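A student in our group prepared the protein record below, which I am reviewing. Here is the record exactly as it was handed to me.
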Amino acid sequence: MRNAEPLVVGVDGGGTSTRCLVATLSGEIVARGRAGGANPRSARDPGGNLTHALTEALLGLGPRFHPRDVAGGVFGLAGASAAGRERALVLAEDAWRAAALPGLPVVVPDILVAFAGATPVPSGSVIIAGTGAVAARIAGRLIIRRCDGYGWLLGDEGSGVWIGRQAARAALAALDGRGPPTALTARVLPALLRHAPGRDAGAAPLAGEALAQAIVAAVYDGEPARLGTLSPLVESAAREGDRVALTILDDAARLLVRTLDTVRAPDPALPVVLAGSLLTRPTLVADRVREALIGRTVVPAKDGAAGAAALALRAFAAAGGPGAARDAEIEAAHRRMLAAGDTPGQA
C-alpha cells in the first residue's frame, strides 16, 4: 500500500544535534528522527548523523512507506554557506542516497530553516545562538545579508562554544594567577570529561598545575563543539553570583546583540527570530538579548526541521509538482507544521 499524499522531508542540522521530520503536503507531520550534530566544522561524524536522523524518520513511517512517496526535501545545515557549501552538499546527498530517496535534496544554510521554522512571514531578521552564532537579514525567504557564523576558531561570538572557551580560559587564568578566582575552576574539567567517551570523570580531584594541564588535554582531545557543553555550568555559576561567569554571559549577550544589529532590518514591524538553545531556553543570555530588543517584534524559533519541511513544500509547489498546493494552502500547511513543531532550543 502506498501513501495517498506525497511527502516532504525537512532536516535541521546544527552543531550539536540534527532533527529530521517528514510531513504531508497539507502540513501534517508524520515522522521524526534525531541524531548528533551535522556541522562539518565542529561535529565528529556529521555525515553519519545526517544519515541516522533521516533513516530514523523514514523508519517511523512504517511498512506502507516507499521511497517514491517523497516528493522532495530541504536540508538546512550549519556550515552550508559558501565556504562550506561543497562539503555540506556531499554530506546531504550521501545521506539522501543512503535512504534510496529519488532525486536530490535542496541544501541551504541553517539560517533559512531557523527563520522559516519560526514564522511563515517571508522577510525579517534572525539570530541563531547555540553551538555557533550567526545573524542574517531575510527578504523573500532569501538571505540578503549576514554577520558572523565564521566557526569556532574565527567567530561565532557569544555562542555556546564561545562561552565554553571563555570558561576554560577563565579557569586556566585563575589557576596560574592571571585572573580572579572563580567557581568555574573546579567545574570545567568534570563537565568536559562527562562528555568525553572513555575518559574517567570520577577520578581523584586535581589542583594547581595538574588541573590546568588536565583541562588543556580535555579541551584539545575533543571536537570543538564539545566546548558548548560548558555553557550550562557557566549559567549555573552566574546564577550563584560568580562574577567571572556573569561577565562571560554579559559579554556573550552584548556580542550577539551587536551581531544582530549589524544586519537587522530597520522596519520594527518585521519579525526578529531568536533561534538556538541560548536564545530559546530560559537563559541569562536570552534575558539580556530580549531586553535589548524591547520595542521589536520578537518571535522565538519553534522547529527548524519544520521550517526546512515548509521550504521543501514551497519548492515543490513552485516546481509545479503533481498535487502542488495554491498559495493559501501552502501558507496553511506552513502554519500547521509550526504549530505541531518540536521543542525549541535546537543548537
User: Anything to note?
Assistant: The beta strands are 7-13, 17-24, 29-36, 70-77, 106-109, 124-129, 133-139, 142-148, 271-275, 297-300. Residues 243-263 form the longest helix (21 residues). The chain has a mean pLDDT of 90. The first strand starts at residue 7 and ends at 13.
